[in-house]
Amino acid sequence: MKIAIFSTKYYEREYMDNANTDAGHQLTYFESPLNAHSTIPLSGFDAVCIQLSDKIDKETVTALSKQNVRLIALRNAGFDNVDIAAAVQHKIAVVRVPAYSPQAIAEHATALILTLDRKTHKAYNRVRENNFSLQGLLGFNLYGKTVGVLGTGKIGAAFCNIMIGFGCRVLACDIKESEALKAKGVTYHTFEHVLQNSDIISLHCPLNAHTHHLFDAGAFARIKAGTMLINTGRGGLINTKDAIDALKSKQLGYLGIDVYEGEENLFFKDLSESVIQDDAIERLMSFNNVLITPHQAFFTKEALGEIAKITIQNFTAFENSEALENEVLS
Ligand code: NAD
């Protein structure tokens, strides 16, 4: 099968080519993203392979359909950048990689917590300048703290297990309850209860109409003063402007984010010689209790290997007209 792979990063090709050794698909890599303004001719390609920075809206789907593309294969789990209804209407199948390494993301959320808490990033820089003072490095024990987890699917469950290991009390909120987590001591509550009773809250639910700006001014008003909020889910779960206000009033004590509302204009790019036009992220970076990482939670060797393997399996299943176990239908 001939596949056009968009938004290819230098680190991906090796993993994709290795996974494709036996399958033998014809992979063509493009560094540019796929969107309604793409100029790359797609005639002759059976499938496009995309990731989060590609914008597959109605217009893009119509353009793909005109060029006889029959498959959109996501190299990630979330699919909020694809108009699924339009794809269904044009009879273009959409597949994704629903899980590749939940531990990679859960462990990164933990890294954000520990860095914000114990301030190892500050200590690292300080010690290199022969400053061995403890001033400003005071942290707190995770042991005994109450951690709220929104979404206890694959990543949320892995995160709950890590927090249990630290000796935390875990309060969860999900529309589906996990019996396995309950057996380990996790208790399920309303969003309200989790908001009001957690020292740390970590977001692991998908972005959709119900969860968009889940953390807005109203939610920030109801958290315990000084709460730490961690977001490795999607940027749109948090209203950035309201988060800035909550940080300024000290109602929000710490913010650790691997995802950001305006990340498509920033993340995965070296902008070190550019003038950043996004004032909100610049303001966020000015707080010493905010830690931002550039959507790197998934970025482990194990996760890249799994993403490539499952993506190639998705191509092969489609080519062989097999049931698409990773198809996105709505
Ligand atoms: P999943 O589908 O296994 O779990 C999501 C859970 O959220 C489900 O249990 C679902 O019932 C629950 N949920 C849905 N709506 C909810 C709501 N309103 N309130 C509370 N819970 C709700 O997904 P996953 O693999 O665990 O991934 C979770 C999210 O993590 C993805 O949607 C994606 O946005 C994000 N993600 C981020 C990265 C990264 O690198 N930062 C990588 C992969 C995934």
Describe the structure.
With 330 residues, this protein is α/β, with parallel strands linked by helices. It has two domains: 2-100 and 301-319, 3-Layer(aba) Sandwich (Rossmann fold), CATH 3.40.50; 102-292, NAD(P)-binding Rossmann-like Domain (Rossmann fold, 3-Layer(aba) Sandwich). It has twelve helices and twelve strands. A seven-stranded parallel β-sheet has the order 8-7-6-9-10-11-12, sandwiched between helices. Strands 2-1-3-4-5 form a five-stranded parallel β-sheet. Strand 3, helix 2 and strand 4 form a beta-alpha-beta unit. The protein is globular. The two termini are 25 Å apart. Bound molecules: nicotinamide-adenine-dinucleotide. Residues 77-78, 99, 102, 105, 150-156, 173-176, 204-207, 210-211, 232-234, 258-259, 295, 297-298 line the site of nicotinamide-adenine-dinucleotide.
Task: Outline the secondary-structure elements.
Layout: E1 2-5, H1 12-19, E2 26-29, E3 47-50, H2 58-66, E4 71-74, H3 84-89, E5 93-95, H4 102-118, H5 120-128, E6 146-150, H6 154-165, E7 169-173, H7 179-183, E8 187-188, H8 191-197, E9 200-203, H9 217-222, E10 227-231, H10 240-248, E11 252-257, H11 279-285, E12 290-292, H12 301-319
Strand order of the largest sheet: 8-7-6-9-10-11-12
Q: What is the alpha-carbon Rg in Å?
A: 21 Å
Domain count: the total is: 2
Which kinds of small molecule does this entry bind, naming each only once?
nicotinamide-adenine-dinucleotide
Summarize this, please?
The chain has 330 residues and is α/β, with parallel strands linked by helices.
What are the key terms here?
globular; alpha/beta; Rossmann fold; five-stranded parallel beta sheet; 2 domains
